[in-house]
Known about the structure:
Layout: H1 2-35, H2 45-54, H3 56-62, H4 64-81, H5 84-90, H6 95-137, E1 149-152, E2 155-162, E3 168-176, E4 182-193, E5 198-208, E6 222-232, H7 238-245, H8 253-266, H9 271-281, H10 283-299, H11 307-335, H12 339-361
Amino acid sequence: MKILDLYVAKHVLGGFLIVLLVVAGLDMLFALVEELKEVGGNYTFASAVQYVLLTAPRRLYEFIPLSSLIGCLMGLGILASSSELTVMRAAGISTLGIIVSVMKPVLLIIVIALGLGEFVVPHTEQSAQSHRQVMLTGDGAIYDASRVWHRDEMTFLHINAVIPDGSVRGLTRYEFNDDLTLARSSFAEEARFDGSQWTLTNIEETRFAVAEGLPEEEIGSLSTAVIDSEVWRSGLTPELLQVVMVKPTNLSMSGLLAYSAYLDEQGLASAQYRIAFWTKLLLPLAIFALVLVAMSFIFGPLRSVTLGQRLITGIIVGLAFKLTQDILGPTSAVFGFPPFVAVMIPIAICIGLGFWLLNRAK
């Protein structure tokens, strides 16, 4: 069985690696072409290439489930086309035995996926976003109004970039009174955390006269000032800010849990972070479900079709799986059912479909 396991693993892992490298490589190429639109000033072609390379681990991680499905279809499809699966079964090896041989290399794929998602992607993605934003924003207060906004009690923040060392470049704050009138806006070129509070430097502030008791002609007047440094106390820490700068799907599970708890304390919506947590936690089960569907196709309806047909089927199933998860995630937030259920539904459908087709093939 060891020889058989190695032989099957060679085909499965070979198909997986080919699909993963091709799909992720094309994605990186398209991303680089898109980044060329931003080239100018400090953001050079070399900066764009560096940004795309830093996002490579994230792109590989995102395509692992789809590559597992298509790679398994390719690897086992080659064995089926050359009648090697038929020979294995004629030699007394059961379908279950072949499935076990396939799942052994899949366990390696799952371990690699978990390692990337937990220990590599959060750091490389944060470095990539920081590098890009620093190159693009320079010393401007707000480069991209859609980039990173956050609320800390009655203060709304816009953050240009969070550097990997925990410091912040370009912090814009809008402070509101309890009656929701704007009291102060300020921009700090840099902010550093000393363990308990933030020290802001090179601050430009504007104050709005809205206090009760002022003469009517003074209400709404403005006063501006330039301040060398200021102490800012906030519940935000560098760790939480690094979470803010990265999309939920690119964070570690521990980071997702910590930031979800912080959002709950602030009375803010944390649904997308909890959905991302369950998506990452159930990723091994999702890979298993997709590989199970691939094997059921090989032993069932796709036993004797061409490689092209198998690839098209794999792409359709993989995209349908991803689309279903992407739709059910926000739907759970709107209708209030648990994120776990939203993530688990497409996985359960794939597992049920896989076992049903395997049972029919017997």
